[in-house]
Structure to design on (144 residues):
C-alpha cells in the first residue's frame, strides 16, 4: 500500500445511508434481506474513510467536502441504490476489486449493470470500466 493510500485511511469516516434500498427502480438486489422493504423505517448505513471516498471521483469529492449539511456532518443519503451494489462499491473502494457469488445468468448481468449505473452516477471511471468489462464479457458468452 502506497503512502498516499495510507494517508487516505487516516481521515474520518463518512456515512452513506441507503434510503429504502429494496425499492430501487434499477432492479431487485441479490441480497435476501427483506428488513428494508419499501416503507421500512430502517435505512442501511455504510462507512467509508472520507479521504478515500473523495479521492475516487470529483463528484464524490464534492459530496464529501462542502459546507452544506452533507459535508459538515459527514452523511450522504442515497436513494435508488441497493445494498448489494453499495457493498460492491465499498469493497472496490478499498480493494479495487469487487466480488460476487453470481457467476452467470440474468441476475449476474443485472448485478454488474447496477454497479455500472452507480459508477456512472458518481463518475467513478475505473469502477465503471471494470463493471463494463464484466458486462461485455457476459454478453459475449451469450452471443457465442
Amino acid at each position: 500500500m502506497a503512502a498516499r493510500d495510507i494517508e487516505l485511511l487516516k481521515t474520518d469516516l463518512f456515512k452513506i445511508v441507503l434510503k429504502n434500498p429494496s425499492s430501487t427502480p434499477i432492479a431487485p438486489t441479490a441480497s435476501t434481506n427483506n428488513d428494508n422493504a419499501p416503507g421500512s423505517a430502517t435505512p442501511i448505513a455504510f462507512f467509508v474513510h472520507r479521504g478515500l471516498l473523495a479521492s475516487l471521483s470529483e463528484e464524490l469529492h464534492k459530496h464529501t467536502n462542502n459546507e452544506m449539511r452533507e459535508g459538515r456532518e459527514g452523511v450522504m443519503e442515497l436513494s435508488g441504490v441497493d445494498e448489494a451494489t453499495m457493498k460492491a462499491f465499498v469493497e472496490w473502494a478499498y480493494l479495487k476489486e469487487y466480488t460476487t457469488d453470481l457467476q452467470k445468468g440474468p441476475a449476474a448481468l443485472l448485478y454488474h449493470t447496477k454497479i455500472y449505473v452507480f459508477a456512472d452516477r458518481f463518475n467513478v471511471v475505473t469502477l465503471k470500466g471494470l463493471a463494463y468489462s464484466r458486462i461485455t464479457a457476459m454478453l459475449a458468452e451469450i452471443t457465442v
The chain has a mean pLDDT of 83. Strands lie at 13-18, 44-49, 75-78. The helical segments are 3-8, 50-55, 58-64, 69-73, 83-95, 106-121, 125-143. The two ends are 40 Å apart (CA to CA).
